[in-house]
Each structure stands twice: as C-alpha cells, then as structure tokens.
Amino acid sequence: MRSARSCTACARPCRTASPTSPRRSPSTQRWPRRSRPATRTRHRLPCAPICSASRTARSVPLDRSDHPARLHARIDACISYTDGVTPPNSTLPWERLTERSPLAARIAAHTAQAIIERRHREGELITESELADANGASRTPAREAMVQLETWGLVRLAPKKGAIVTAVTPEERRDLLAVRTLFEANVRPDAATADALAEALAANLERQESALTRSDLLDFAGADHGFHSLLIQSSGNSVTMEILDRLGPRLARLTYQVIAEHPERIAVFLSEHRVLARHLADADREHYAELVRAHISAGHADAVTVAP
C-alpha cells in the first residue's frame, strides 16, 4: 500500500501523491514547469522541401524564402544570367539558360518550349509529379516552375490538381499584337546606338535565314522575337523591356502557330524584316512606323485559334 505523504499546500496527508510526483509550490500554487530543451518548432510551409521517398518535410531549418509570396522574386532571379547581363537578342527563357541555371528555371524553360511546340496541348493537365519525374527532380522545383509558367501566361494553376495549358484566344492575340505594335512603332534610336543596332539586326537576320534553310520553326520563332526585341530595346526604355521579357513566351507562341500553319510565311517575314531594318537605318521613321503596323497586322491576320 502506498504510504501517505503530506501535501505542501495544505499540510494534510495526501494518499494520491507519490514520491516521484512533482509538488506544487506553496507560493504560486502551480505545478512547476518542466525544463525543456530550447528547440525551435519548424512549421511545414506549402512549398517546403519535400522528400519524395517519405513524403514528409525534411529536417532542415525553416527557409522563409520558400514562402509562396516570395516565389516570384526567387524565380525571377533564377532565370537571370549569372553575370547579371542579358543579351539584347535573347529574351526567351530557353535561350538564356546556362550551365549554372537553377533546376526550377530549367524545368520552366523546357516546359515552356514544349508548350509552344504543342507537345503539351491546349487544355492538357500538367502535374507536379509529371514535371518532377520527367526532369529527375523533386516536387519543389517543379512547383516553382509551374508558378513561373503561370507568370508567362502559358498555364493556369488548378488547386490540388496541377497546371492547365492555356489556349490563345482571339482577344489575347489581338491584345498582344497591339502591345507589340505600340512599342515598335514608336522606336526612336539615337545616333550613338545606331551602328550597334544595325550590327545586331544583321546578325539576327542571318539567324533567321539559317532557320529558314533548316526549316526550324522554333528557332525562327525565337529569332523573330529577338528581332522585334532589338527594335524595342533601341528605345532605351527598361520598363518596356521588363514587360516584353514577361510576354516573350506568349509572343513566340503566336509566331510559332502562324508559321506552323503557313510555313511559306517564314520567307515573307524574313523579307519584311530586312525592309524594316533598312528603313530604321535610314532614319525613315514615318515609313518605318507604317511598315511595322502592316507587318504585324498582315502576318497574323488569318491565324487560326486552336481550341482546347
């Protein structure tokens, strides 16, 4: 039978108290707090690193940069060049990848390229596990890649499902071409950069001709976008280039769809690009603006919109 002990609070015998049970302090009348190791509770964020084997959060320190509100800033840093310099003729994500590019940037760029080439059809559902398995990665970079694809307007995120490939609507085509026309028609290159712009345009035209010879539709779409990017960049407006950088994959998709449906237009585009470069070099701004509007509107006039 357990021996009774006196309670320190009331000084009366207590049959339930045991020699090892904690005692109340007579001054506070509370149980003393047990000493616990000073450890930090790690909360699992929605985008915390995931272990593909155990499907649980890894035992790593909490990284606040993995919060969804900071994903866009992280991915924007992923797709930039390691030396901080972006070539003026390369604004498409798959054209500016380097050996040191993060995995999330590579997944996003290659998936964007597949969407433009219609290897992922409009309305198709892409899941995190599919992207992760196809690229030999975990779900974390796959999730970040999906966020970037949504930023580019190529997919629409579906909660708890994945990402759905968007379709180019007539309204989207009209709005994108209107933005491009607005930027390019108001180009006013100065004399200090005219020579450098002429050299860059000449190199780009050679790339277009090479893509035409090889019948490489994606390369020509990239060169076409690079040509128009050079024209817009000659204005020296950095904000405009930021907007164009985000719209780049969508604009390239428009060009790819047109030349895929009408391959004969590749030679027409190349010929019109040479005329635009010549008028820009001659500082014939009035005719240049008219030619830009005609080139963009006529090139996409009867483009077929693919339904999902």
In short:
The chain is 51% helix and 5% strand.
Query: What percent of the residues sit in helical stretches (DSSP H or I)?
Result: 40-55%
Widest sheet: strand ordering: 3-5-4
CATH class of the largest domain: Mainly Alpha
Distance between the termini: 80 Å
Total beta-strand segments? 5
Number of structural domains:
2
CATH architecture of the largest domain: Up-down Bundle
Question: What order do the SSEs take from the amino end to the carboxyl end, as H and E?
Answer: EEHHEHHEEHHHHHH
CATH domain topology of the largest domain = Four Helix Bundle (Hemerythrin (Met), subunit A)
Q: Give the low-pLDDT segments.
A: 36-89
Structural class by helix and strand composition: mainly alpha
The rounded Rg comes to 30 Å
Mean pLDDT: 76
Percent in strands = under 5%
Q: Could you say which overall geometry the principal axes of the C-alpha atoms support?
A: globular
Keywords: DNA-binding, Transcription, Transcription regulation
Organism: Mycetocola reblochoni
Biased composition (Basic residues): 31-42
GO molecular function, one term: DNA-binding transcription factor activity
